[in-house]
Design a protein that fits this description.
The chain is an alpha+beta fold. Helix content is about 35%, strand content about 15%. The mean pLDDT is about 90. It binds zinc ion. Zinc ion binds next to strand 2.
Length: about 70
């Protein structure tokens, strides 16, 4: 298990424990199953974010992909 997968599992279980089994997607707010969970950087690394737990959130794999596909063309 990679470090990131380990961190994802840790965050997932922490949130699930706090919210009684519900892990809301950071992007769409719907519940994320453990098999569909991906880690999202709240503040992107390219904008000075880090990979600490406070900057990471759980989102659906699909939501994560869509968010990155929808990058503003600024
Ligand atoms: Zn979602």
């Amino acid at each position: 298990m990679s470090t990131l997968a380990h961190t994802r599992h840790k965050i997932y279980t922490t949130v699930a424990r706090q919210l009684h089994g519900v892990v809301p997607c950071w992007v769409c707010g719907e519940h994320v199953t453990v098999n569909d969970a991906t880690l999202e950087h709240i503040r992107p690394l390219s904008e000075g974010g880090n990979s600490h737990m406070e900057n990471l959130a759980i989102s659906h794999g699909l939501c994560n992909n869509q968010r990155h596909a929808r990058k503003p063309s600024a």
